[in-house]
Amino acid sequence: MSETPLPLVVLISGSGSNLQAIIDRAQQDLPVEIRAVISNRADAYGLERARRAGIPTEVVDHSRWPDREGFEEALMAAIDRYQPGLVVLAGFMRILTPRFVQHYEGRMLNIHPSLLPRFQGLHTHRRALEAAETEHGASVHFVTEELDGGPVVLQVPVPVLPDDTEEQLAARVLEQEHRIYPQVIDWFARGRLRLEGGRVMLDGRPLDRPCTLDAATGAIHCPD
């Protein structure tokens, strides 16, 4: 591994709690340099989190462009000024075009609040409750052209309790998101993780199934 911290750009649309988890780990042992936090919404609270940490911020407001392509051209220009080795989507609520995804192929991660491929898209906690699931969770995956369909690196199961509300379940899942996202970024930053030919490679071996974090013990289990 290079001793040079991996340069990151983080994209957000909202409160930025996963961003905060990454900032907190970066101030400890995560070998990254967060060069910028970019939002498509000027009122995203995550921008304030970044400013408090001394991280440059930018707003690329999607409503200023008549089409998605124009917005993404401006967004790519903003991102590329910081020359990131990894682009991190942390609650970035815009569907991305194939051209954008291809531009950052193999160096863009997303976190999704479900055990993918279950419940791709929005309202995952509500849908898990409506489906009477006994287990829910979160997944970190490489971004591909398929929405929430890229290869999954790490998941954390979260039990669904009999009296759970959508808000209660969401809060418990979010707590675990804050654990798995910095972990996957750490693997990538240390050169342990990459995407090769559409397959996840961890420590030089193909990962045919995602690794799993045991929320109770903190142990990570990866398939042999």
Brief rundown of the structure:
This protein has helices at 17-26, 45-52, 68-80, 98-103, 124-130, 166-189, and strands at 6-12, 32-39, 57-59, 86-89, 108-112, 135-142, 152-159, 193-196, 199-202, 205-206, 211-213, 220-221.
Describe this structure in words.
- This protein has helices at residues 17-26, 45-52, 68-80, 98-103, 124-130, 166-189, and strands spanning 6-12, 32-39, 57-59, 86-89, 108-112, 135-142, 152-159, 193-196, 199-202, 205-206, 211-213, 220-221.
- With 224 residues, it is α/β, with parallel strands linked by helices.
- Strand 4, helix 4 and strand 5 form a beta-alpha-beta unit.
- Helix 1 runs parallel beside helix 6 (166-189).
- The protein is globular, with a radius of gyration of 17 Å.
- The model has no long low-confidence stretch (mean pLDDT 97).
